Amino acid sequence: MLAKELISDVIPALKTSDTGVKALYWMDIFRISHLPIVNNTEFLGLISDTDIYDMNSPDEAIGNHSLSLFSPYIQEEQHVYEAIELISKLKLSVVPVLDINKNYVGMITAQRLMQFMGDLFAVKNPGGIIVLEINANDYSLTQIAQIVESNDAKILSMYIISPPDTTKMDLTLKINRIDLTHIIQTFVRFDYTVKAQFMEDDDMDSLYSNRYEQFMLYLNI
Q1: Are 36 and 104 contacting, i.e. CB atoms less than 8 angstroms apart?
Q2: Is residue 61 located within the same domain as residue 154?
Q3: Is residue 28 classed as helix, strand or coil in its secondary structure?
């Protein structure tokens, strides 16, 4: 998916004529802590709520203040993963999106990216989860898929976390079955290490929360 497909059509950008008070009001309404400043289509930078709190006169126009704005952005044709990386690395609540000519076209919120990741990991689809610990050299998606499908099941989503300083990786599989007993037995028969299994909704909610935090931490390494 491209960045332009996740652009918010609700949250407005600031102009230099807008006040800090107005910016804080919008941040509160949309539950974000950053907003882009744009004149016509020129992206001037990103302002945070902390920048505004540091102003001597937040009721004056933003353009009247000497601000050291930083200008992170992605282009509309870049993959959404790059927006996730930027948000994680810089701890942003929004990412400005520019076109190929550096004209501002909109912004992507961290909340929208989390919704996208939820869809990506098939969070709403019923099923169970298996976490395999695999040596990087032994990884074979073909064999893993064959094991799952030989038990009349399908992989809904999967992702890998590779901790630093190790040759092992954790492969998390979301499968369209709650009862994973036979699938797990088959993995064990093929000498796979089943690190964890989740068949109850409460356990799966906990896993998703934990794995999301690990994923974001991994992007920040």
Answers
A1: yes
A2: no
A3: helix
